[in-house]
Amino acid sequence: MASVKNLKKEINYVLGDLVNIVYVWEMTNGGKPTEATDVIIDEIYEKYDGFVTKIGQKDVENKKAHFSQIRKDFEVVANQIVEKINGLN
């Protein structure tokens, strides 16, 4: 299992990059946020907060399984967000 520090960095970098991709899309398509982009960005921030909270939990019995599940959940969420970004018109 990769370290917790690396998991935190990966979540931070990937979700940060997705926010930047949405902002670049906004700039190349009129320069103003749309309702769809606002929803995506809000979702990214909400998911980030959720992952940080899960990583910081202290009352975990099996840490290896806990962090493994966080990584799996993160991959699913990141892929869902990418699909939403790809669906922007």
- Helices, by number, come to 3
The figure for the number of domains is 1
Rg result:
15 Å
- Portion of residues in helices? over 70%
Q: What series of H and E elements makes up the topology?
A: HHH
Architecture overview:
This protein has 89 residues and is mostly helical. It has one domain (4-86). The chain has helices at 4-28, 35-55, 63-86. Helix 2 packs antiparallel against helix 3 (63-86). The longest helix has 25 residues, at 4-28. The termini are far apart. The model has no long low-confidence stretch (mean pLDDT 92).
Layout of SSEs?
Elements: H1 4-28, H2 35-55, H3 63-86
Helix pairs in contact: 1-2, 1-3, 2-3
What's this model, at a glance?
This protein is mostly helical and 89 residues long. Helix content is 79%, strand content 0%.
Record keyword descriptors for this entry.
89 residues; mainly alpha; 3 helices
